[in-house]
Amino acid sequence: MELKRVWAMYFSPTGGTEKAVKTTAQALAAKLGLPLESYDFTLPQGREKDAVFGEGDLVVCGTPVIAGRVPNVLLPYLTEKVKGNGAYAVPVVSFGNRNYDDALIELRNILEQDGFRTVAGGAFVSEHSFSKTLAAGRPDAKDLASMQEFGAKIAEKLTSGWEYTAPAYVKGCDPIRPYFKPQDRHGAHIDIRKVKPKVSDACVGCGHCAEVCPMGSISRENIREYIGICIKCCACVKKCPVGARYFDDPGYIYHKEELEELYERRAEPEWFI
Fold first, then answer.
1. Positions in the chain whose pLDDT score sits under 70
2. Could you count the other beta carbons within 10 Å of the beta carbon of residue 193?
3. What is the pLDDT of residue 184?
4. Using CA atoms, how far apart are residues 209 and 237, in angstroms rounded to an integer?
5. What whole-number distance in Å separates Cα of residue 233 and Cα of residue 248?
């Protein structure tokens, strides 16, 4: 199949997945001498229309890892509106230094079911959405170099006479395991699904939080009001210009601090060609 363009396609509330996908796709496009286009489906309006690809397209598609899986809120879009039509694809996930569990193989399977032919897959580390210290500043220079090498290696594979015969090998369990559930030290489940950020008196009412919420769940008329679900991506927390949004739920704070304590070590990217 003659390739005509490379796509960087991503859901990236706080920017880590976007960096992983774009850096990989840029290296891939440069090595193949192909144009690069972007498809950002982070905000609700980016998921309204079908994303249709075809032979000649090579799509680097990425999502963050939430609870060890592809975010469940994205499944309707990814399974119903993304059409591969024989295009090549590279699944990419970003995780916050704990583990990517089955997210990469789940995304690979979804893309295959959408009609893509997967070539390779990668999992990269980015700063954890809950924390300012867990994988702080990542992806860093070492991570970016790994992404560039990943893209270059995929290009080498595609120009070496390789032909698609089966889904790309990636690490993970299939059937996919249940979503990761945080527990306290006594083994009791910590349920933070309905927890939402609070707003302090530092808020100046600029509305930026409503603009960056990937679920469209913050009212633009009253930014202290939630009109939809919160997936704990923390875009509103990390992107608030005055630091006015915060979590104070005890279960959330316990889980965040436990992650920071247990996963302080540096996790490294893993990719599969």
1. none
2. 9
3. 81
4. 8
5. 16
- 63 vs 216: CA distance, rounded Å: 18
Of the candidates 235, 151, 249, 145, the one whose C-alpha atom is nearest the C-alpha of residue 196 is 249
- Residue 79 has what pLDDT? 98
Q: Does domain 5-177 have CATH number 3.50.50.60?
A: no
Q: Which two tokens stand for residue 53?
A: 């690809």
Work out the end-to-end distance of the chain between its first and last CA atoms, rounded to an integer number of angstroms. Answer: 18
Question: How many other β-carbons are positioned within 10 Å of the β-carbon of residue 29?
Answer: 22
d(CA 99, CA 77): 24
| Prediction pTM value | 0.96
Token output for 247? 């979590």
Q: Where are the domains of the chain?
A: 5-177, 198-260
Return the structure tokens found at 31: 């090595």
In this prediction, residue 188 carries a pLDDT of: 86
Describe the crossing of helices 141-158 and 16-32 by its angle, rounded to 10 degrees. Answer: 40
CATH class of 198-260: alpha beta
- SS3 label, residue 253: helix
pLDDT at 145: 98
Amino acid found at 187: G
DSSP H or E run through 153: helix 141-158
